Amino acid sequence: MSAGNDEERIPIQDQGNSIEINSAANEGRDAGADQPSATAVGQPFNETANVPDPPSTKRKSKRKCRECREWGKFAGEWLTFIAIITYVVINGRMYGQMVTGNNLTRESLESVQRAFVVYQDLGAIGFKDIRNNKRVTFLIHPIWMNVGKTPTRELRVFVSVPKSIQPPYRDLEFEAPPKNTAFTPMVIAPEGTIRGGDQRLSAQDLIDIQTGTKAFYIWGWARYRDIFPKTKSHTTRFCTVINGVFGDPSDLSKPIGLLTEFCPQYNCSDDECEEQDRATK
Questions:
Q1: How many Å apart are CA 137 and CA 250, to the nearest integer?
Q2: Banded model confidence at residue 260, pLDDT cuts 50, 70, 90
Q3: 153-173 pLDDT, tens per residue?
Q4: Which pLDDT score, from 0 to 100, does residue 209 have?
Q5: In the chain, which ranges are E strands?
Q6: Strand partners, 273
Q7: How far apart are CA 260 and CA 240, in angstroms?
Q8: Mind spelling out the 3-state secondary structure of 124-165?
Q9: Per-residue model confidence as pLDDT tens digits over 70-88
Q10: Following CA atoms 48, 54, 59, 61 in sequence, which dihedral angle do they give, to the nearest 10 degrees?
Q11: Three-class SS of residue 48?
Q12: How many Å apart are CA 105 and CA 113, to the nearest integer?
């Protein structure tokens, strides 16, 4: 009986204990309205748990975040500015190189394709001058050749009157043409030739040259432009001495020829002519 009674009291005791535990738990919940409870049974109570941050800490945190955003924006703007400057510099250099290359290409094309007039030779054509009692007269004319690949533009030619000269052919005079000189516009086709600037010598003059008693020098120039835009005008000058004749100047039925040699000065083209002019001033 005693053993049985003990067995009956255990559940009652357990039940009483659970009632007491539950009562304690209820009392704890009632007291927890004023203070925080433990996170778990058997753990120490944490007084800082669920305590909100002070207002000053929040303001500092927000200000710090705002400063970080402003610095990030400032850094981004500077990086963008540097990238733009770098892009402009690189593209500027590329553009400069492209312009230089285009100019070199254009200059190379112009130098190869442009018209280039040279003095080639001196010819003579005889005829009987009706205005001078049918005296045999010879037209002395330079032959100009365009060795370029394009035609000339605005070609003007001037040739001086032949002047008597004696060796050694120094101290030559090159006068400018008279102001009222009327120039006839001409064109020389690519790799073509023309006669331009005829002057006259009598048959007796040629006979005197043939016998060595006389010599004449004749000079002139050709000024022209090429077909390319924005290019400067070009000049070719020549000076030659007529110091020999082959054939019979008195017989027009047979051709004659002139023997010439270049003067020691005045033969030039373009920049060479400018250098000669500076040297003689």
A1: 9
A2: very high
A3: 999 999 999 999 887 777 788
A4: 94
A5: 117-129, 135-146, 153-159, 163-164, 193-195, 199-202, 216-225, 234-246, 257-262, 268-269
A6: none
A7: 6
A8: EEEEEEHHHCCEEEEEEEEEEEECCCCCCEEEEEEECCCEEC
A9: 777 777 888 888 888 888 8
A10: -10
A11: coil
A12: 12
Burial class (CB in 10 A: 0-12, 13-18, 19+), 197: buried
Dihedrals φ, ψ of 149, to 5°? -100, 0
What is the residue type of 49? A
Residue 185 pLDDT level (bands cut at 50, 70, 90): confident
Other CB atoms within 10 Å distance of the CB of residue 81: 10
Can you give the pTM of this predicted structure? 0.61
Token look-up 């205005």 returns 131
- What is the C-alpha to C-alpha distance for residues 270 and 281, in angstroms, rounded to an integer? 17
DSSP code of residue 230: T
Residue range 98-122: mean pLDDT, rounded: 74
